[in-house]
Design a protein that fits this description.
With 245 residues, this protein is of the alpha+beta class. The chain is built from seven helices and eight strands; from the N terminus they run βββααααββββαβαα. It folds into two domains: 109 residues, no CATH class; 117 residues, Ribonuclease H-like superfamily/Ribonuclease H (Nucleotidyltransferase, domain 5). Helix content is 37%, strand content 18%. Helix 1 runs antiparallel to helix 2, helix 5 crosses helix 6 and helix 5 packs parallel to helix 7. The mean pLDDT is 89. InterPro entries: DNA/RNA_pol_sf. This is Mitochondrial protein.
Length: 245
């Protein structure tokens, strides 16, 4: 074992120490991606997606170089380690890696243009006196135009620090927004259970209950009063899982 001194760079992630905590950034990694795509001098945009972000898998003509598309999409997946603001956009791009088309490539290039304008942004870890675990959950009901599957998303805070986030398409089709929201909550609760167990193994157990926020009234009602009948039987496992935890 050798002490290499204070951490400043690890696996492409730059670590800057401040008086309040750590700043994690991947500026050089983003520049490398832009160079690979030939967009080092592109014009930046203010958002990673536009109003037409939900693209069909059959829209437009196939791209001339699918390997480059897949390479850039895979590189962007690693970029989400310090940039949760592009998690949803990258997830949408990765849905079409098997058969990328021109509109999908334009969507990917928009993400790169957004990164060009936000190279210095990153993930900040503050010194926090709070040790509460709080989770925010949401779902995009039937958002996929091809399969009508929903997208689950959550972000988890440990005190003032964002420590876990996800944007992922659900494996089954939800017949109501309440079902989609409840499945998203179940995913968030499962992640919070794993994080609580990890913190306990690190000898930093969370003594308070984890608070999970959801903006769907029906899903919240089911969490408090799970009436098992024909309309909720198909999500019975998620209901019991959340109630038990």
């Amino acid at each position: 074992m050798k002490d290499l001194g204070p951490l400043h760079h690890f696996l492409g992630i730059s670590v800057s120490r401040t008086s309040t905590g750590l700043q994690l950034s991947q500026r050089q990694y983003f520049l490398d991606i832009l160079s690979r795509a030939g967009m080092r001098d592109c014009n930046p945009v203010s958002t990673p997606v536009d109003t037409n972000a939900k693209l069909s898998s059959t829209t437009g003509s196939p791209v001339s170089d699918p390997s480059l598309y897949r390479s850039l999409a895979g590189a962007l997946q690693y970029a989400t380690l310090t940039r949760p603001d592009i998690a949803y956009a990258v997830q949408q791009v990765c849905l079409h890696m098997h058969d990328p088309r021109e509109p999908h490539l334009l969507f990917l290039k928009r993400i790169l243009r957004y990164l060009k304008g936000t190279l210095d942004l990153g993930l900040t870890l503050h010194i926090s006196s709070s040790h509460k675990l709080i989770v925010y959950s949401d779902a995009d009901w039937a958002g996929c135009p091809d399969t009508r599957r929903s997208t689950s998303g959550f972000c988890m805070f440990f005190g003032d620090n964002l420590i876990s986030w996800s944007s992922r398409r659900q494996t089954t089709v939800s017949r109501s927004s309440a079902e989609a929201e409840y499945r998203a909550v179940a995913t968030a609760v499962a992640e919070s259970c794993w994080v609580r167990q990890l913190l306990q193994e690190l000898h930093r157990p969370v003594n308070n209950a984890t608070i999970v926020f959801c903006d769907n009234v029906s899903a919240v009602y089911l969490a408090h009063n799970p009436v098992q009948h024909r309309r909720t039987k198909h999500i019975e496992l998620d209901i019991h899982f959340i109630r038990e935890k």
